Amino acid sequence: MSHNGEVTDVRDTGVAGPPQGSRLHPRVTSFRSRSSVLTPTQQGAWDRQWDRLGRNVADEPLDAEGWFGRSAPLIIEIGSGTGTATAAMAQREPDKDLLAVEVYRPGIAQLLGSLERENIPNVRTLRGDAVDVFQNMIGPASILGIRVFFPDPWPKSRHHKRRLLQPSAFALFADRLIDGGVIHVATDHAEYAEYVAESGDGEPLLSRLPVGTPNEVREAAVPNSPMRHDRPRTKFEMKAEEQGRAVTELLWRRNNR
Q: How open is the CA angle 217-237-224, to the nearest 5 degrees?
């Protein structure tokens, strides 16, 4: 739920160029500039936990089983922000492994602090470009689910090319999902919701799952979905609701090969 990098930011996508400038990516990335200075508390969590729970994006295929120390279904959250939803959902899904992809260093540090304080064992984090992760680190038919909560809508027409959730991304995600795997998107931007819906529906390897209101999605099981969708309401979402921006939940299931 945020974007980061050494100088990055945004509202929650986690898709951005390499943090230290060592992984130059040719595509246009979907993040905005913002400071990444850590507070003393955040720095402490980073110093204690990064080497064990975090890594920078790389070209090597991800050995999730080796990193998590077990074999379990893997869910990837793109743009975990400060990790509020990540930590809460991980606690509700102890049988799943969650990989949080983010570029905003203070957000990652906050997540690391939450994992440490609450002793949450089933979360790891990658810092860098999410598309880079899916292209170079994740193999076909290898993950159970993908979560993208409140990605930056880039509302101006000239910036639409920066949007993460485009047809090419849905094709990539569909290839990486196992049969029956699910993509879960939440956005408070009405026009972007329509764009995302059209992009996802246009991918032949995906089928839309019917959902109700955000509260219904969070409080009830979604038919034919192998993972939970009861994400917590964040401060960002509550602010959107106060300003009259309705949240749209979108889910797709990967068709059998």
A: 15
Catalytic residue among 152, 175, 201, 230, which? Answer: 152
β-bridge pairing 74-78 and 97-102: parallel
What's the CA gap between 196 and 186, in Å, rounded?
10
Q: How far apart are CA 186 and CA 85, in angstroms?
A: 12
Judge contact between 50 and 112, C-beta under 8 A: yes
pTM of the model: 0.86
192-203: per-residue pLDDT in tens? Answer: 999 999 999 999
Q: Which CATH number fits domain 40-254: 3.20.190.10, 1.10.287.110, 1.20.1560.10, 3.40.50.150?
A: 3.40.50.150
3-state secondary structure 128-172: CCHHHHHHHCCCCCCEEEEEEECCCCCCCHHHHHHCCCCHHHHHH
d(CA 227, CA 221) in angstroms, rounded, equals 9
Indicate if 97 belongs to the active site: no
Q: Which two tokens stand for residue 216?
A: 């219904």
- Tens of pLDDT, residue by residue over 17-57, are 333 333 433 444 545 545 578 999 999 999 999 999 999 99
Q: What is the signed CA dihedral for 183, 215, 110, 113, rounded to 10 degrees?
A: -100
Q: What is the pLDDT of residue 144?
A: 98
Here the tokens at position 158 are 């000239």
